[in-house]
Design brief:
390 residues; alpha+beta; Rossmann fold; globular
């Protein structure tokens, strides 16, 4: 490893400690030792003018690389499943598909695992490999298995881990299946969002072991960080411990509803006034509740040719929709079509949530079995949702 950024690493650890995020001396030692810049090759994309400005690592000077690497923010390292910063020149468009998550999130999640000497950890979503390196430093390289679905991303992460001095178990494959070859694990941590916790993770975790992952629907917000403990009977139980936002697992990422939206909602079965403002769907906790009530739903916003705001909820699998009608700045009514009354279900859940005093996401508890997920808020029978895995 290089000592060129030793000062920056110590400063980062100090800031994380001052913020109350970094509390364990052994993990602080990892943050102070592992150079984040090693895990950003071949470069990053920085947001600029509605697009992305590539910063190739090979041509950027050391001061630029250091300044970028030790920002306390997530850094995009891949667009559209294939594009890296060394392959383009100038401003580009695209959707992020791999990144180096902000150190605040990385460190806080590792702290939440409560790692102890000898623990075996499975990480779902290697990404750049930085979080795997921190855990290798803490536990030893042989106790960390990390799995990445994208072979190119996996190869770059493996090379970076080797450069950093860690010959760990880097696996290319579908992380939703876990990695039974090295099971059982004491801890499972996912750096992607999943619609539900795969039972394969539960099956591959020791009783008393912890699974930490972001759960929710297919929206890019309104998701929660679930922490569950595996029981002797093969179930897992815990709660949502806070807000969390990660890219969706590749195999679960939805195909975005596109095309002529007016054609998709042309034939409605009903139209009525809304009982709660659909604008609630733009807020984090109501969005989480909405996805519990309609787990296959996608929320879409757009603008008409005259600038009028448009808002929809779609369930492509069940060929159902809710289309909200605005008068000026006020959402007045909803048109629904298809076999599933999407807004009826979501609206009922939102009203029950409001009647319960609008509890925070951390009030949500979770139980996982081999055939279902059950979410609930204690003391409120109307705020209970069971999602069967079939």
């Amino acid at each position: 490893m290089t000592d060129d950024t030793a000062h920056e690493r110590r400063a980062l650890a100090g800031r994380l400690a001052d913020a109350g995020v970094l509390t364990t001396p052994t993990l602080r030692g990892a943050v102070e030792s592992v150079p984040r810049e090693l895990f950003l090759k071949p470069g990053v994309f920085l947001p600029a003018d509605g697009g992305w400005q590539p910063v190739p690592w090979a041509t950027a000077d050391e001061a630029t690389r250091t300044q970028i690497a030790y920002r306390e923010e997530s850094l995009t390292t891949q667009l559209d499943g294939h594009l890296t910063a060394d392959k383009v020149d100038g401003l580009v468009k695209g959707s992020p598909t791999s990144s180096s998550t902000t150190p605040v999130t990385v460190v806080s999640m590792i702290e939440e695992l409560g790692l102890e000497d000898g623990h075996a950890v499975l990480e779902i979503g290697t990404g750049t490999g930085y979080s795997a390196a921190l855990m290798c430093h803490r536990l030893g390289e042989d106790n960390v298995t990390t799995i990445e679905v994208d072979p190119c991303v996996a190869a770059r992460a493996d090379a970076a881990l080797e450069t950093a001095g860690f010959s760990t178990w880097t696996v290319t494959g579908d992380g939703l299946l876990g990695n039974p070859r090295r099971a059982p694990y004491d801890r499972v941590i996912a750096t992607c969002a999943v619609r539900r916790i795969p039972y394969a993770w539960v099956r591959q975790t020791k009783p008393g072991g912890i699974i930490l992952t972001t759960v929710g629907g297919t929206w890019n917000y309104g998701t929660g960080l679930a922490k569950v403990t595996v029981n002797e009977d093969g179930t897992a139980e815990g709660r949502i411990i806070g807000r969390s936002s990660f890219m969706q697992a590749r195999s679960q990422a939805p195909e975005l509803v596109s095309g002529d939206l007016s054609a998709r909602v042309a034939y409605a079965d009903s139209e009525r006034a809304t009982k709660v403002a659909p604008s609630l769907l733009t807020e984090w906790m109501p969005a989480f509740v909405a996805q519990l009530a309609a787990p296959r739903a996608q929320f879409t916003r757009a603008r008409d040719t005259d600038g009028t705001a448009l808002m929809y909820v779609f369930d492509p699998e069940r060929e159902s929709f809710a289309h909200f009608i605005a008068q000026g700045d006020v959402w007045k009514s909803v048109r629904q079509g298809g076999p599933v009354p999407l807004w009826d279900n979501i609206e009922q859940a939102l009203m029950a949530w409001q009647e319960a005093g609008s509890p925070d996401i951390s009030a949500v508890q979770l139980r996982v079995t081999d055939n279902s997920h059950t979410y609930w808020i204690e003391g409120h029978p109307a705020l209970r949702w069971q999602h069967d895995l079939a």
